[in-house]
Structure formats: structure tokens, C-alpha cells
Specification:
heterodimer, A: 267 residues, TIM Barrel, 8 strands, B: 404 residues, alpha/beta, Rossmann fold, globular
Chain lengths: 267, 404
């Protein structure tokens, strides 16, 4: 990803492909770009999302009812490009759908459709080598995660990181959290010390105050559940032709309000 | 020489650790503690002492004379795991893991449960060792297994209903893992079967092999030879793994029995090895029931303990190398066997174990009278009496129509 010369902390939104419908996913991606997103994480719905809390579980269930699949999610990327989405797009998927599609077919498809990266939350470093190599051959980085429990693993993971490095803010699954651990800044500082790629943080980030606090310690914030929850609330209106534009505008304003601190000068 | 898993937790292509990064260090800590414990005579002695004094081991090997006579084929023996404290083999593993948790300084236990047997076992050992226990259980299973829910609460455990998916064992396991991710600093996740990421499949096998070790000794004493066939039911597969493991290098036919539900050609079954394909579930590469897009398909069985879309990775491996034969038995066949054993031998089996028994009955009929079949009677049927009462009122009363 050429974009990753970071001048200000990045805003990396996560949405689920197909929630509430494939067409609206494209419009939501555009709205996020307009709200200042630097990279889009496009989530592929999965029946058993182990790393996700209730908000994203519900979104995945809605998207699966729309018959969304890994292949269809990847094929949304050129559709998004046609509509004007220019920011890099990362495919976020659990490992099993990749295995069923076939790892080689997956990367061929991702390459053909212009995916800019892949994140597989249940594929830890030790199990990732075959996928990592296929990704390298296809020019698609496999984004790694580090967690507060990673400790002695941080150096190994960070020194091999591709694209950017995703720090899990706290123990637990994705969701909306009122507070983040007090030790998070130390953790991010430690990770940054080992990483040659930008370090971003996600899981639980749902308030502009949190973004404001974190921006000095990382190169970007991932916001998922908070946005997905907003989409859930707006779902009906997004699907009504005469209310869609207003709902999209509300979504855009919400994304802007969460990430406004990123535009202020970094201290 | 049979020597799996390797250091990466692989049984051939199967097994491994497919979990969020957050769990990698907790898994490594368990792996290290387990290796030390298994090499420590003191740990082993304490494990054996508790099995003996608290659970009543060794469990007997029972000859089934009436059933043998009725079938007019091979002699049928039962390994009586139903006579364990709490009524099933699950306690063997729960005691082992609780001892390990204690060594690791963890005082809070997380467990998932299907039929409720592992939940009861976990709640029991938690009470015994003075630990806290939180059990995740699918809402559907809570309805099917009311008595076990009450039992767990009586034992001081918190039972958390799970409303996602089909609301059965798969979903309870997802939720238990999610809870563990959040609380891995001070909780020990006590998995109930030979499933999950490494080292769980190996650990649970080690704590269940007591079934096969005892059975081998008892059978040799009784018959002066090994059984011709051993049969055990397979959901996740812990009773089968515990029973089979000590016999893997012997000349014994091993048969794992999956739940065929309403038939393996219908969508309503839990026959993972028979009908599944390779993939990842609950942190492990194994066979599972899934669609072409890799979404996991909800399984079905009358038996809550076999109602699981995956299977232990070691079973997947044993199937792939042809060492164990995996077959399946329908709800109706299992219910008939449930009634048959009750009436012929005065032993009410768990509906899970009745699957193994149904297959044993089919096989024994085709064998000579000098041959032997050993069935792992993994649990007792008290927990199923209510469900069976409902089923048999529905006109499925096989035993009544077979009365002679």
C-alpha cells in the first residue's frame, strides 16, 4: 500500500459487506471516504465470528441473509471504485471462508478485484506462513495483529508486519467500550518501538474522546462496532429510497464527529 | 509408532491453533503447564487419587449377558463410564483440567456444555476445588436439559444462556471462547471435549485415556485377550478418544459412531466425519459441516451431546489414515438401543452412549459367539428420561412394538 506514509493519524473504518445490502455497503464506503477515511476495512460476514462481539455478530447475520459471501464481498471492490471510492480497501475475513474458496483462488480473486490487503483475525503468526507467502506473491499484504497479551511475541510479529500493524486495544472481542485500559499508551509505545510499519489501534473505540487520547500514540484508529451499530440504527431508512440520502448524511456526520480529533494538530 | 500431535499441535493436516492473537500466550502457558504436569509423578498421583476417591474409579467392565443372548452373536461388554461421579466420563477430564488450573494459580473456570454433562462435571470440580465456575449453554439445550441446568446451579455455578446461532453446543463454545478472550488473565477455559486449539485436543485425550487404559487391563483379565471391536460415540469425541487411544497400536477394530439424526441424506444430522469437509472450527483444523462458502451448518441430533458440527482433530486424522472407522446411527436407532439396554440389562444409557450401543448391536449380530465387542457406555441416561418420555409418546415406541 503506497498510501502509508503517515502524516496524520489515519481513520480506518470497518463495515460489514452486505449489511444492510450490497448496494448500500458501496454507498456507505463512499460516505466514509467523504468523512475522511484513509483505509476501509471491508468485513466478510461469517457464521461463527469468534473475535466479534454482539454488534458485529448481528451485522454478519443480516449480511448472510443477503446471501453475502467472501467472493461477492471481494467483487464489491470494483463496484466501489466505479462509484468513486479511492482509498485502499482491506478484506477482513475469518479463515474458514478463505479455506473453502481455496487460498490461491482467494488471492487471485483479491488481486483481480484490486484488494489492498487482507486481515484474518483467527490466523495467528505461527499458522500464517502459507497465506503470507501467497499474499506476497500477489502483492497483497497480510495485516498482523498484536494483543495486550502478546508480550514476548510483539517483536516477532512487529518485525514481520506488512502494510500496517493492528493493535488490539484490550482483552476481549470487538465492541463498544466506555473505557480503554490505562496501560494502552504503554502498549502502543512498546509496539511502535518494534514496528517498521504504521501502528494502528482498534477494538472498543467508540468515542471522539478516545480518539483524541489515542492519536498521539499511534498512526491510526480502527472504528468498527460503533459505525456498524449506527448502520443498524439507520438500516430501515437506508433502505427507503426517499430517506436514504438523509440517512447517509447522518452516517457521514456521525463518522466525522467520532474522528474530528484526528484533524487537529498532533502534539 | 503413533506419536501425534507434533510440537505445533498438528495431527497430520489437522489440529493447530487458529485463534485470535490474544489467546496465543494463554495457550502457550497451558501447553507449558501441561507438559510439566504430565511429567510430574506427584501430579499424576493426585489425579489418580481424586479419580479413585471422588469419582469412584476404576469404573467396572460389565458383561451384558441378556443382550448377548438376545443378539446371538458376539459377546457384548460395557465400559461403565456411566458409573462415574456425575454420571459420565466428562468428570475424568474436568478433574485433570481443574488440577492443572490450580497449579497455574487460576481460580475461575469457564466451560461450555451441550447435554450439560461437561457443565455439571466442571461445576462439580469447581465446587470440590473451591473455584468459581461459569458455564455457557445454548438456550435450546437449556430447554432440553433442564435437570442438568438445575444441577449446575445447585453446585454453585453460574449458567449463562447463549442465544446466538442454533443455540446449541457450537454457539455455547463460541461464547465461552469470547468470554475467555476477555478474561484470559485470571480464568482457565476448561474445554469438555478433544476439540479446540492445541493443546486442548491432546490435553483432553490425556485426561480421558484412563478409560482405555483401565478397559484394556480389565478386558485382558476377564477374557484373556483384547476385544475384536470397540465402539464409542463421537460428538467432539472425548470418550471415544480416551477409549481408543491405548488401543491404537493393537489389532482391534475401532468404530466411532456419529449422530445421523433423521438420516445422513437429510439436512438433519451431526455426522461430521461421514458427511463433513475440511475446515477450521473453534481454533482447530478438522472436518466440519459447512456450506460451499465456508459458513458452518447447524447440526441436528436428538442427543444434545452429539449435536456438534465439528469433531476432534485427532478423529479427523484417524479417519484420514484409516485407523478408525466412523459410522453413524439415526435418532430412531439410538432411541431403540436406549430402550433395549434399559430393559435387557437394567442399565439406562445416556442417549449419546445409546448411539454407540446401537452400532454395537448391529455389529454383534453379524459376529461369532467367540468374538467380543466392547462398548464405551460414556454416560447414564437419567438426564434423558424426560426427553425420551416425550419422544416415545409421539408414537416412536420401538420397544413396546418389539416386546416379545
Amino acid at each position: 500500500m503506497q498510501c502509508l506514509t503517515v502524516t496524520k493519524p489515519m481513520f480506518i473504518p470497518f463495515i460489514v459487506a452486505g449489511d444492510p445490502s450490497p448496494d448500500i455497503t458501496i454507498e456507505l464506503a463512499l460516505a466514509l471516504q467523504e468523512a475522511g477515511a484513509d483505509i476501509l476495512e471491508l468485513g466478510v460476514p461469517y457464521s461463527d465470528p469468534l473475535a466479534d462481539g454482539p454488534i458485529i455478530q448481528r451485522a454478519a447475520a443480516r449480511a448472510l441473509r443477503q446471501q453475502m459471501t467472501l467472493q461477492k464481498a471481494i467483487e464489491l471492490i470494483p463496484e466501489m471504485r466505479k462509484k468513486g471510492v479511492k482509498i485502499p480497501i482491506i478484506i477482513f475475513t475469518y479463515y474458514n471462508p478463505v479455506l473453502q474458496l481455496g487460498e490461491e483462488s482467494f488471492f487471485a480473486l483479491a488481486q483481480k478485484n484490486g484488494a489492498n490487503g487482507v486481515l484474518i483475525p483467527d490466523l495467528p503468526f505461527e499458522e500464517s506462513e502459507p497465506v503470507r507467502k501467497l499474499g506476497e506473491a500477489a502483492g497483497i499484504p497480510l495485516i498482523s495483529l498484536v494483543a495486550p497479551t502478546s508480550k514476548k511475541r510483539i517483536e516477532m510479529i512487529a518485525s514481520n508486519a506488512q502494510g500496517f500493524l493492528y493493535c488490539v486495544s484490550s482483552l476481549g472481542v470487538t465492541g463498544v467500550r466506555d473505557t480503554l485500559p490505562e496501560t494502552l499508551n504503554e502498549f502502543l509505545t512498546e509496539v511502535k518501538r518494534h514496528s517498521r510499519v504504521p501502528v494502528v489501534v482498534g477494538f472498543g473505540i467508540s468515542k471522539s474522546e478516545q480518539v483524541s487520547m489515542l492519536k498521539n500514540y499511534c498512526d491510526g484508529v480502527v472504528i468498527g462496532s460503533a459505525l456498524v451499530q449506527k448502520i443498524e440504527q439507520l438500516s430501515d431508512r437506508l433502505q427507503k429510497p426517499d430517506e436514504k440520502e438523509e440517512a447517509l448524511a447522518e452516517f457521514r456526520r456521525y463518522a466525522r464527529s467520532l474522528t474530528a480529533p484526528l484533524d487537529e494538530t498532533v502534539q | 509408532m503413533y506419536n501425534v500431535p507434533n510440537e505445533n499441535g498438528r495431527f497430520g493436516d489437522f489440529g493447530g491453533k487458529f485463534v485470535p492473537e490474544t489467546l496465543m500466550i494463554p495457550l502457550e502457558e497451558i501447553e507449558e503447564a501441561l507438559a510439566k504436569a504430565l511429567a510430574d509423578d506427584e501430579f499424576k498421583a493426585e489425579y489418580m487419587r481424586i479419580l479413585q476417591e471422588y469419582s469412584g474409579r476404576p469404573t467396572p467392565l460389565t458383561f451384558a449377558p441378556n443382550l448377548t443372548k438376545k443378539l446371538n452373536g458376539a459377546k457384548i461388554y460395557l465400559k461403565r463410564e456411566d458409573l462415574n461421579h456425575t454420571g459420565a466420563h466428562k468428570i475424568n477430564n474436568a478433574i485433570g483440567q481443574a488440577l492443572l488450573a490450580k497449579r497455574m494459580g487460576k481460580k475461575k473456570i469457564i466451560a461450555e456444555t451441550g447435554a450439560g454433562q461437561h457443565g455439571v462435571a466442571a461445576a462439580t470440580v469447581a465446587a470440590h476445588f473451591g473455584m468459581e465456575c461459569i458455564v455457557f449453554m445454548g438456550e435450546e439445550d437449556i430447554k432440553r436439559q433442564e435437570l442438568n441446568v438445575f444441577r449446575m446451579k445447585l453446585l454453585g455455578a453460574e449458567v449463562v444462556p447463549v442465544y446466538s446461532g442454533n443455540r446449541t453446543l457450537k454457539d455455547a463454545t463460541n461464547e465461552a471462547i469470547r468470554y475467555w478472550v476477555q478474561h484470559c488473565d485470571d480464568h482457565f477455559y476448561m474445554i469438555g471435549s478433544v476439540v479446540g486449539p492445541h493443546p486442548y485436543p491432546k490435553m483432553v485425550r490425556e485426561f480421558q485415556r484412563i478409560i482405555g487404559d483401565e478397559a484394556k487391563r480389565q478386558f485382558l483379565e476377564r477374557e484373556g485377550k483384547l476385544p475384536d471391536i470397540i465402539v464409542a460415540c463421537v460428538g467432539g469425541g472425548s470418550n471415544a478418544m480416551g477409549m481408543f487411544y491405548p488401543f491404537l497400536e493393537d489389532d482391534v477394530t475401532l468404530v466411532g459412531v456419529e449422530a445421523a439424526g433423521k438420516g445422513i441424506d437429510t439436512p438433519y444430522h451431526a455426522a461430521t466425519i461421514t458427511k463433513g469437509t475440511k475446515g477450521v472450527i473453534h481454533g482447530s483444523m478438522t472436518y466440519l459441516l459447512q456450506d460451499e462458502h465456508g459458513q458452518i451448518i447447524e447440526p441436528y441430533s436428538v442427543s444434545a451431546g452429539l449435536d456438534y458440527p465439528g469433531v476432534g482433530p485427532e478423529h479427523a486424522y484417524l479417519a484420514s489414515i484409516g485407523r478408525v472407522r466412523y459410522e453413524s446411527v439415526t435418532d430412531d436407532e439410538a432411541i431403540a438401543a436406549f430402550q433395549l439396554l434399559s430393559r435387557e440389562e437394567g442399565i439406562i444409557p445416556a442417549i449419546e452412549s445409546a448411539h454407540a450401543l446401537a452400532k454395537a448391536v448391529q455389529l454383534a449380530k453379524t459376529m461369532r459367539s467367540d468374538q467380543t465387542v466392547l462398548v464405551c457406555l460414556s454416560g447414564r441416561g437419567d438426564k434423558d428420561v424426560q426427553t425420551m418420555m416425550k419422544y416415545l409418546k409421539g408414537g416412536n415406541d420401538v420397544a413396546m412394538s418389539n416386546r416379545n
